[in-house]
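Sample pair:
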Amino acid sequence: MTPQAFSTVYGPVRSWRYGRSLGIDPIGTVSTCSFNCVYCQLGCIEHLTPTRSVYVSTARIVDDLRAVDREGVDIVTLSGSGEPTLALNVGEILQAVRDRIGRPSLVLTNGTLLGDAAVIQDLAAADRVAVKLDAWTDGALRRINRPVAGLTAADLWAGICRFRQAYPGQFELQTMVLRPWSAQQQADYIAKLQHLQPTVVYLNTPSRPKPRERSLAGRGNEGGDRTPAQHFHCVDGETLAALAETLTTATQIPVRWKSP
């Protein structure tokens, strides 16, 4: 992938959750994350790490933002080629978005760095933060999210809770439902929702095949990429709807979902 073919800004992407979302990629051409999720639309993560660094300069992102027509944008989302909180300059990027685009900012995060005081400070500049929570036991975490070595479910949960207490913006939760949940899984998740009290919960299923090779098309959801891919057998819309109703009834928290 040549540097000329890469732009840190992409979209706007049509999102069922957020409208017309302009993507900002603070990670760059090499997919980099602290998870290697079995369903990741980026494919197999090329650089698995928990270490923060400047992967793309803020100046480069500012340059790419100059060409953006903000009239077609509902929200600006930091995600892209991996875990955005790994970008040591994520706070600077959020400020640049606020200064130049004037639209609400959103960070999609897997939550692995949310216990870090510097990350908490950086994300305070985001209008909304949506945290992934797919697993809350070590076995499920290793099976679904396949994190960097040494990260436990307890560590992940403690960091999310610390961030929730400190973050002044809109806190959201996203969960990938790969198979029907047992009664115990539902009860455990309900307890976590009651503790976190997110503004909204999004239940997802893998909406796109997982590419077997790295592709920039994986940053969005527009499709059209012909990279060979692995297809998933998802839970159906009826199962998601029933789960959403159960969660909402138990917690009074809005739960949204999209039929696969």
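The radius of gyration is 17 Å.
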